[in-house]
Amino acid sequence: MSETLQTIVAEATGLSPAAIGISPRPPLDNQSNQLYDVWASNCHLIVKEFLKPDELQDAPVREFRALTLLAPLDIAPQPVLFQPLTPSLGPIVVYEFMEGEMWDRHCPSSTELVQLAEVWLKMNAASADDLWVSRGHNRSFSEIEARFRTLFQTYAAWVEAEFAPGRQ
Questions:
Q1: Phi, psi dihedral angles at 59 (to 5 degrees)
Q2: Lowest pLDDT segment from 3-12, 21-30, 97-106, 130-139
Q3: Of the residues 5, 51, 65, 160, which has the fewest C-beta atoms closer than 10 A?
Q4: Between these two residues, 144 and 1, which has the higher pLDDT value?
Q5: How far apart are alpha carbons 111 and 23 in whole angstroms?
Q6: Cα(33)–Cα(90) distance, rounded to whole angstroms?
Q7: Rounded distance between C-alpha atoms, residue 148 and residue 10, angstroms
Q8: 4-8, 16-20, 99-103, 144-148: least confidently modelled range
Q9: Kind and range of the H or E run holding 38
Q10: % of the chain with per-residue pLDDT over 70
Q11: How many Cβ atoms are within 10 Å of 119's Cβ, its own excluded?
Q12: Neighbours of 91 (CB within 10 A)
């Protein structure tokens, strides 16, 4: 598998496979994919291999497209390559490593929340012309309405029974 990844990254970067070092990252408890640290010359990349069967078709393409849309804004890892399913690997997305700590690993400070607001404002500058329907939202309007109506009715029933101040 490491040789296959080396070959794929070599083709994407124009380097020799021998010049590429790869090591798997230990998976997190909530992770459904495999990440690899890749060092190619002076560049640190991440290879994300998708493993969850119901994500193999759409999730890697959607992730690569999202990174591509955000690339000019420089607020997300820069995309390098999307490689569909191969005989020895799941589909992979290769992107540049981005320094920092993932937000779900700590409670953000007020300074970080201000930074997040600034990033959201930058995201509004991205063109919506090439966006696609979110996974699960390509259903008919009546299906979506029925789902929301059920959720709201369940919530209303809970409020009525359990949360007297919220009844109004």
A1: -60, -45
A2: 130-139
A3: 160
A4: 144
A5: 34
A6: 9
A7: 47
A8: 99-103
A9: strand 33-40
A10: 95
A11: 13
A12: 23
- Tell me how crowded residue 58 is: count the other CB atoms within 10 A of its CB: 13
Beginning with the edge strand found earlier in the chain, give each strand of the sheet holding 20-24 in spatial order.
20-24, 33-40, 43-50, 92-96, 79-83
Q: Are 126 and 69 in contact (CB under 8 A)?
A: yes
3-state secondary structure of 166: helix
Residues 6 or more apart whose CB falls under 8 angstroms from that of 123 comprise 70, 73, 75
Amino acid (one-letter) located at 133: V
- Token pair listed for 130: 């090439």
Pull the structure tokens for residue 16: 């020799």
Q: Which structure tokens are listed for 51?
A: 């493993």
In eight-state DSSP terms, residue 29 is: T
Helices (H) and strands (E) in the chain, counts: 4, 5
Q: Which amino acid is at 162?
A: E
